[in-house]
Amino acid sequence: MAIIEEVSTPFDDQRPGTSGLRKTVEQFSQPRYLENFIQAIFDTCTELQGGTLVLGGDGRYYSETAIDTILRMAAANGVGRVLVGREGLFSTPAVSATIRRRGAAGGILLTASHNPGGPEGDFGVKYNVANGGPAPEQVTEAIFARSREITGYRIVQAFAAVDLAREGAAEVDGMPVEVIDPVADYRALMAELFDFDALRALFRSGTFTMVFDAMHAVTGPYAKALLEEELGAPAGTVINGEPRPDFAGGHPDPNPIHARDLMERMYRHDAPDFGAASDGDGDRNMIVGRHFFVNPSDSLAVIADHLDTIPGYRGRVTGVARSMPTSRAVVRVAEARGYDHYETPTGWKFFGNLLDAGRVQLCGEESFGTSSDHVREKDGLWAVLAWLSILAGRRESVEAVVRAHWTAYGRDLYSRHDYEGLTKDQGERLMANLRDKLSGLRGTATRPGPRVSDADEFAYTDPVDGHTTSGQGFRLWFDNGARAVLRLSGTGTSGATLRAYLEKWQGDTLKHNDDVQELLADVAEAAREVAEVEAFTGRREPSLVV
Ligand code: G6P
Ligand code: ZN
């Protein structure tokens, strides 16, 4: 064993954000930067000593270097064995599935999710624990604390001569390494949950076509295996299906702006019946019908309404959860069906305890994330299979399914307005100002809009472990029934983005076709006024409307 103890000094910026440590490739390439953080993980997460570690990611630039370093550090830190995805690839939900199915102690995911990749792009490292989910805040805080007192790291000298292109057994200085098919466990899990025969029949019917945009990110191999090989969708159903280290220069975020190829196809005169896309690491999803975009909050509500028709969930749905900025559409379904419902802070990790405790089976977020208790991450392809199941059962168009939902429950008009590229200082001062005036907001009139009926700063006490998380964004309720939420994004790598989430319930079916932005204009203006957006940011209008 040639273990080397390298001397190091701490970096002070290694606090994991909403979803792991996410920085530019340039920052990660600083000498000792990655090593320090990995050592902090190994020092903190002692379950890895002698345990199995799952390793892989979305294949973005810098992954190969990072995998080499992590394998050598794992060997030097007493990790029992490492399962690494072929070519270093592993979607985030598939890591979660593999950790759970193989009883691994944890996983290290190399991804910056939907952020652009390449030498000028972003990189990220995320630690997942034995339940398959992101490390809870207590653990990420402990990793951060450790990173600030690091004095050195352990690594073995030998180059980790593991051929990632070939499945099979290898070793790094005595530590067993297995290069595995990153799709196999995940594919087996999906087959247990969904009625694949019914989905095959849908594709065979000859009246149904779909397109899945993998955005040159990790879901290409997964989507081809499941949709084309397993379910019989014709070759070419999956577009942009080859993972690339820079996502072919694209921004692998499945929303109407960045998934341009998909949107263009779905709005053509010969558009397919169903379209979907996933992000860099495969945990997000966007659902589109023919000439019809499905808002993620509506998608969650529709899935909730049909979940017990899917074999893996029949007769066992008791609760659902949504992140706080997600619309209340799913709450209406829960109330009608007698399911419990929970409102958590933004970030998938907050669903973990609820899922582990069996309190909820379905979770979702406005940020294009949906999943169930089959894993402890959000899962893009799972959402696609859930929608395919709904369409196979109802044999109606996506648009018809959503409109029927609105007719039954009313429509929660919804939009997110982002003010991007602010300085950290602008963002923080705006939030501090809201905090200062919070207690006096109730009853405030906005001109010419609605009156604020209530306001708070969201805090969440986890009902399972009692841990309280505060400062999670401001909620404003208005006397016309609308709600606005204001928070700063937790996933950027520089500056700040202010997000304003706007929603209003519309029971009148005749108004379900009206322009959402027009219907929400008064809420948008009221939120801007209350938060003094222009005074603090110099912006009159959002830079991105989703
Ligand atoms: C990541 C997390 C999600 C979260 C989202 C919010 O994707 O996995 O759980 O909803 O970030 O991003 P934001 O930029 O709004 O903090
Ligand atoms: Zn992601």
UniProtKB/TrEMBL annotation:
SUPFAM superfamilies: Phosphoglucomutase, C-terminal domain (SSF55957), Phosphoglucomutase, first 3 domains (SSF53738). It holds the Pfam family PGM_PMM_III. Keywords: Isomerase, Magnesium, Metal-binding, Phosphoprotein. Its cofactor is Mg(2+). It catalyses: alpha-D-glucose 1-phosphate = alpha-D-glucose 6-phosphate. Residues 14-151, 185-288, 297-409 form the Alpha-D-phosphohexomutase alpha/beta/alpha domain. This is phosphoglucomutase (alpha-D-glucose-1,6-bisphosphate-dependent).
